TrEMBL record:
<comment type="subunit">
    <text>Monomer.</text>
</comment>
<keyword id="KW-0436">Ligase</keyword>
<keyword id="KW-0067">ATP-binding</keyword>
<dbReference type="InterPro" id="IPR012947">
    <property type="entry name" value="tRNA_SAD"/>
</dbReference>
<dbReference type="GO" id="GO:0005739">
    <property type="term" value="C:mitochondrion"/>
</dbReference>
<dbReference type="InterPro" id="IPR009000">
    <property type="entry name" value="Transl_B-barrel_sf"/>
</dbReference>
<dbReference type="GO" id="GO:0004813">
    <property type="term" value="F:alanine-tRNA ligase activity"/>
</dbReference>
<dbReference type="InterPro" id="IPR018165">
    <property type="entry name" value="Ala-tRNA-synth_IIc_core"/>
</dbReference>
<dbReference type="GO" id="GO:0000049">
    <property type="term" value="F:tRNA binding"/>
</dbReference>
<dbReference type="GO" id="GO:0002161">
    <property type="term" value="F:aminoacyl-tRNA deacylase activity"/>
</dbReference>
<dbReference type="Pfam" id="PF01411">
    <property type="entry name" value="tRNA-synt_2c"/>
</dbReference>
<dbReference type="InterPro" id="IPR002318">
    <property type="entry name" value="Ala-tRNA-lgiase_IIc"/>
</dbReference>
<dbReference type="InterPro" id="IPR018163">
    <property type="entry name" value="Thr/Ala-tRNA-synth_IIc_edit"/>
</dbReference>
<feature type="binding site">
    <location>
        <position position="607"/>
    </location>
    <ligand>
        <name>Zn(2+)</name>
    </ligand>
</feature>
<dbReference type="GO" id="GO:0006419">
    <property type="term" value="P:alanyl-tRNA aminoacylation"/>
</dbReference>
<dbReference type="InterPro" id="IPR003156">
    <property type="entry name" value="DHHA1_dom"/>
</dbReference>
<keyword id="KW-0809">Transit peptide</keyword>
């Protein structure tokens, strides 16, 4: 990284020059890394614990990605888990995609950004939060006091008084604003409160009259203070929270822009080196470029930061959820690069990928943001290369699809005597699915005399934007029915590592989520115990099953509850989900909790086998592969991992062999609890998607595997008995899945397959080792019979075709063309093809044949055959047949002289063939006259 006291001012300086940042307001370094460090140290000196950034993949089902610094503290703000510290400070990685269309076009919008925050959990409140925010801005970062404006909620007199009377901000620089701008809510109900924001004034010379803090050309909001002091109830009324909290956020990129004195966030040292790398690949000068080029470079710079950190945190490109976010951002970056004329990787490979080259710069400057990125660089770069090359192929398919869409639009317009228009839905399909720029769609369409329904395109875009905002734009905090229970119940003590049977006290009973005092026979109930041997679902392992007994004496049981699942809720409280089979269960009673021993053993076997599987995968296909999800069940295990291609049979055999070898070694497992830093230093692997505390549990198979894991495991690998992979498949782009069985499930699987093989041997009347040969012979015989049947059908179709040649029409004057359009009832697609080939060879050139049939099961078959003379007139069979097939609810295509199509609406076949006849006669009559 270059000298951190210097920063490119891209808009006013030649490419070769650097601009020294004016640090007259502060002697300290104003690089992005320094701003982050100074913020954290400022609050650390005021009693805040510096906590690490959480993953961009949140431990929260209500949000897709981490969108705010407060997200990792949400359970504390809700009172679901106790605070570990009274105050904290973080530099949080964040992703927001609801304003993706504004990225690069404004000075401040990003998809990836860092939010610096300080938090109070029932400790200090408004006065200290305001005082420290001002002190940080003025004393630490050296901002001129007369350039800072303040907004407060219109009814928050307390905050106004602190800012005006205690801090001394003049009244003319304090704006009271409504709830839309300055009242934070987490949802329809739940914690909420007023907020106060700090704005920097770039143009104080404009004075105080008619000021608008929303004017981006003059102001930028850089610090937001949320005073979480109320709970919004169902009726909309506000009640004070028992614990008042502080949640703040200072945008690192925004503060860097202010301190480094550059015109936008992109030209800070946090992003500009990435932009500069892209500019070099495009062979352009960013400072001398026009705004259109700069915008494209900014988009690349922003999106490359986002995708590098997302992939580092385990998100791989796919068509759903988080994976779609990554894929969309990669495709936008690639598209911008192509529009800028970037060809190849800039290192001599013209067919190579360019975004990995830009990603290398992101990784180079990532150390202070996330130290894990460099360690994962090989996987990140390989994923980006693979996705870009795949997308380039997809983009080329988009170009072909656009050509077909424009031909269809022209054909439809001629048939209906209208102006040809490409629908907004089709234009959006090209843009969103194939990544085809809408501006190129418009340009190509105009060249072909087709307009584009841009209003329809905008409607589709707005629909997607609304869906994106709904998915990504809010952190929802809701006070649930169980929240009152959580206030009186401590975390459940888990005993299940050491025992499967223990006494426990019923702390609470919930029916349909609501607390009750007792439950009777037949009731479905959630049971909360003070301690339990039952494992609660986590780390991929499903919850235990078993029984709760309530006994008046050793010989008399007064209640029996069958437990079918156990989950964690409200922090670390175990919820035992069951059915009362006998008697009555009451809060406060002591029960005997007994785990189903056989099922627990099955889970233990599969969990340890999962660890062995991950170790074997790393050994066979490479250390870069990583876990992307798992399931540890009683009947099987499932393991998802990042890999770009199917595993070969010999690789699967090698993986199985290694695991069974480790099982046979009869190795004792080691389990111990240690500080997380020590565990990572020792080489322990973290489980995908899990959240860890200061102390972690490490499960080790010496010489084979070491992982952070809270699950249950066998004591010795010999307990696993055997391991067998039952399937390997792709579940998303770059993600594979292995399902396997071990222990009792392994024995059951092998025995089941043996039964099937015995039955097959009996049916085929061969020995087991002869089954493959016998099946191959039978398949060969079947193919021969099918070919004979197909040949007979084709001959029948040709014979039928010979009887309809007389129905061919002759059109044209200067050039006579034969046209035949007929329905051939229920013959199959292959026979229909044979009939068309016969007819086009029988009829004298030029000739055009369209045949259709309905072979059953709601299917339609269509075929078009054009002789050379018709093709020379400008008609193409593939393009002509497409709109006809659409009328039958299908599609298809082919060569200029021959095409096939299918559909699912046989009731429209007659109409489709009639339209085809009219269109052929009309078009060929004009060309032959």
């Amino acid at each position: 990284m270059r000298d951190t006291k210097r920063c490119i001012s891209a808009s006013v300086q030649p490419l070769a020059q650097e601009v020294v940042v004016d640090t007259s307001n502060a002697e300290a370094d104003v690089s992005g890394d320094a701003i982050r460090r100074r913020f954290l140290e400022f609050y650390a000196s005021r009693g805040h614990k510096i906590l690490p950034s959480s993953s961009l993949v949140p431990d929260d089902p209500t949000v897709l990605l981490t969108i705010a610094g407060m997200l990792q503290f949400k359970p504390i703000f809700l009172g679901k888990i106790p605070r570990e510290v009274p105050r904290a400070t973080t530099a949080q990685k964040c992703i927001r995609t609801n304003d993706v269309e504004n990225v690069g076009r404004t000075a401040r919008h990003h998809t990836f950004f860092e939010m610096l925050g300080n938090f109070s959990f029932g400790d200090y409140f408004k006065k200290d939060a305001i005082k420290w925010a001002w002190e940080l801005s003025i004393s630490e970062f050296g901002l001129p006091a007369d350039r800072i404006w303040i907004s407060v909620y219109e009814d928050d007199d307390e905050a106004y008084v602190i800012w005006h009377d205690e801090i001394g901000v003049p009244a003319e620089r304090i704006k009271r604003m409504g709830a839309e701008d300055n009242f934070w809510t987490s949802g329809v109900t739940g914690p909420c409160g007023p907020c106060s924001e700090l704005y920097y004034d770039f143009h104080p010379e404009r004075g105080y009259a008619n000021t608008d803090l929303g004017d981006d050309s003059r102001f930028i909001e850089f610090y937001n203070l949320v005073f979480m002091q109320f709970n919004k109830k169902d009726d909309g009324s506000l009640e004070p929270l028992k614990q008042q909290n502080i949640d703040t956020g200072l945008g690192l990129e925004r503060m860097a822009r202010i301190l480094q004195k550059v015109p936008n966030n992109y030209e800070t040292d946090l992003i500009y080196p990435i932009i500069d790398t892209a500019a070099q690949l495009a062979n352009v000068s960013y400072p001398l470029a026009d705004e259109n080029v700069k915008t494209k470079l900014k988009i690349i710079g922003d999106h490359m930061r986002a995708v590098v950190y997302l992939i580092s945190d385990g998100v791989v490109p796919s068509n759903i959820g988080r994976g779609y976010v990554v894929r969309r951002l990669i495709r936008r970056a690639v598209r911008m690069g192509r529009l800028l004329g970037i060809k190849g990787d800039g290192r001599g490979d013209l067919d190579g990928a360019f975004i990995p080259v830009i990603a290398e710069k992101v990784i180079e400057i990532s150390t202070s943001i996330d130290s894990d990125v460099q360690a994962r660089s090989s996987r990140i770069l390989e994923e980006l290369k693979r996705e870009e090359l795949r997308f380039v192929h997809t983009l080329e398919k988009g170009e072909k699809l656009l050509d077909q869409m424009l031909s269809d639009a022209s054909l439809y317009a001629r048939a209906n005597k209208t102006v040809p228009v490409l629908s907004g839905k089709d234009a959006f399909l090209l843009y969103d699915t194939y990544g085809y720029p809408v501006e190129i769609t418009v340009e190509v369409a105009e060249e072909r005399g087709v307009s584009v329904d841009m209003e329809g395109f905008d409607v589709e875009m707005e629909n997607q934007r609304r869906q994106s905002q709904a998915a990504h734009n809010a952190v929802k905090l809701e006070v649930e029915d169980g929240a009152n229970v959580a206030e009186t119940i401590s975390d459940t003590v888990f005993l299940g590592y050491d025992t499967l049977n223990s006494k426990a006290v019923v702390e609470a009973l919930l029916v349909n989520g609501r607390p009750v005092i007792q439950v009777s026979e037949g009731s479905e109930v959630d049971v909360l115990l003070n301690r339990t041997p039952f494992y609660a679902e986590s780390g991929g392992q499903i919850g235990d099953q078993g029984v709760l007994y309530l006994s008046e004496s050793k010989s008399l049981q007064t209640a029996v509850v069958e437990i079918k699942d156990v989950k964690k809720s409200m922090g670390n409280i175990f919820v035992h989900k069951g059915t009362v089979k006998e008697g009555v269960l009451e809060v406060g009673k002591e029960v005997e909790a007994a785990v189903d021993v056989k099922l627990r053993q099955r889970a233990k076997v599969h969990h340890t086998a999962t660890h062995l599987l991950q170790a074997a995968l790393k050994e066979v296909i490479g250390q870069e592969t990583s876990q992307a999800g798992s399931l540890v069940a009683f009947d099987r295990l499932r393991f998802d991992f990042n890999f770009h291609q199917p595993l070969l049979d010999n690789e699967l055999m090698k993986i199985e062999g290694l695991i069974n070898e480790w099982i046979g070694d009869a190795t004792d497992l080691r389990t111990k609890v240690m500080p997380i830093a020590e565990a990572k230093k020792a080489g322990a692997i973290a489980m995908f998607g899990e959240k860890y505390g200061e102390e972690v549990r490490v499960v080790e198979v010496p010489g084979v595997s070491m992982e952070l894991c809270g699950g249950t495991h066998v004591s010795n690998t010999s307990e696993i008995r055997g391991f067998k992979i039952i399937s390997e498949q792709g579940i998303a782009s770059g993600v594979r899945r292995i399902e396997a069985v071990a222990g009792d499930a392994f024995i059951e699987y092998v025995n089941g397959r043996d039964v099937y093989l015995r039955q097959l041997c009996s049916t085929l009347k061969v020995k087991a080792e002869e089954v493959t040969t016998r099946v191959d012979n039978l398949l060969g015989e079947l193919r021969t019979v099918r070919n004979e049947v197909a040949d007979i059908r084709a001959k029948a179709a040709v014979y039928k075709a010979s009887t309809i040649t007389c129905k061919a029409l002759t059109i044209g004057t200067s050039k006579q063309i034969r046209v035949l359009v007929e329905c051939m009832d229920d013959i199959d697609a292959d026979s229909l093809k044979s009939a068309a080939e016969y007819l086009i060879s029988t009829l004298q050139d030029p000739a055009a044949v369209i045949l259709g049939s309905s072979p059953g099961d709601g299917k339609v078959s269509l075929v078009a055959a054009f002789s050379p003379g018709v093709v020379e007139l400008g008609l193409q069979a593939g393009k002509f047949l497409g709109p006809i097939a659409k009328l039958c609810g299908g599609g298809g295509g082919g060569r200029p002289n021959f095409a096939q199509a299918g559909g699912r609406k046989p009731e429209n076949l007659s109409l489709a063939l009639e339209n085809a006849r009219e269109e052929l006669i009309s078009t060929l009559s004009q060309k032959a006259s």
